[in-house]
Amino acid sequence: MMSKLNLYYATNRRHSGNNRWNPDCYGDDFSSDGTENLRFGKLTLEADENEIRKCLKEETKMGKGDGEGLAEYLSGLANENGAMKISAFEENITKTKSSEQNPPNATRYGSLTMFEEIQKIMKKSHDVLIFIHGFNVAWNDAVGSALALQEMLNSDDANKSTLVVLFSWPSDGRLLFSSDGRSLSAYISDRKDAYESGCAVGRGILKLRDFLCRLRHNGVERCNGEFHLLCHSMGNYVLQSTVEKIAQFSNGSVLPCIFDHIFMCAPDVDDNVLGPDGALACLHKITRNVTVYFNTEDSAFKLQGDRLGATGFDCPSRVHSKTKIHQVDCSPIVKGWVEHSYYLNGQVNKDIRDSIAGEHQSGRSYRKSHSGTCNTWIMDKTSLPKKTRSRRRRQERPAP
Question: Could you give the domains of the chain?
Answer without folding.
Answer: 2-90+109-383 (3.40.50.1820)
